[in-house]
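[agent] plan:
  1. take the single chain provided in the ticket
  2. run structure prediction with default settings
  3. attach structure tokens to the ticket
  4. add a short note for the reviewer (M.T.)
[agent] executing step 1
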Amino acid sequence: MTPLRARYLNDSVTTASPAQLLVMLYDRLVLDLARGEEALRTGDREGGSAHLKHAQDILIELRTTLDTSSWSGAPGLAALYGFLITELISANIRGNADKVAVCHSLVAPLRDAWREAAQSTAAQVTAAQAAQSAASPAEPAIARVA
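[agent] step 2 finished; step 3 output follows
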């Protein structure tokens, strides 16, 4: 990785909102699953294994950081993460690209839903900030000096 690319990625991550970070993780998870599946289908067990292990690491991070008491769907999502981890371990051991494809088919719609939620939340925040700015115009410069 070039130094400029590494700096760009670092800046992207350090300035991202929590919702954007979640979408970034899901984007990488989907990419790892697609690459892992393709590698297994072409007989590249070593390459497939590397992608599947990275996907497992992402899922473990998602499951570990999930607050299961914050909303009613969280325990189900935690269970899904556990299922996906188990399936990917099995797929990796057996070199089973079809199991990876099933995991991919479960994760891709979740990623899309999280992206939509993040965009919706960002739009709501922007609208609220605009409304607040319109409701309380800036003080005149003379009033601040006095």
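[agent] step 4 note for reviewer: The mean pLDDT is 88.
[agent] ticket updated
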